[in-house]
Amino acid sequence: MSKKARVIAFYLPQYHPTPSNDKWWGKGFTEWTNVGKAKPLFKGHYQPKVPADLGYYDLRLPEVREAQAQMAHEAGIEGFCYYHYWFGNGKQELELPFNEVLKLGKPDFPFCLCWDFVATIVKLVFFLSIVTFKINSLCKHRAYPSQ
Q: Is the peptide bond before 51 cis (omega within 30 degrees of 0)?
């Protein structure tokens, strides 16, 4: 039995303002802020790229999400893989677009989720760094008798 590979697009929900982004990056920050700041890095590298078709869209708007699904379908994309930021203790970030899709049932387009757990990895690496530092410090300060 042969299975056909499916084309699924990653869906970054950073294209709308949020209170956390306002706090961390400044009022009104979205990923469009970074797109607009892009600079050419080599000859022929045209930057910043101005988005066509939907322009600097806002993912809070259902008609934008519908248009994206339609464009994706027309391009042969079979679904979206929504980034989902859930940091534990019920804390979610950038959840509005996906929650709206669930609530409204639109766009009627296949989807799946992927979790962004970078914050968890950063905490783990930080913890392990501290433990490693303390172990190394203990080893350096331990006195060994001369032979």
A: no
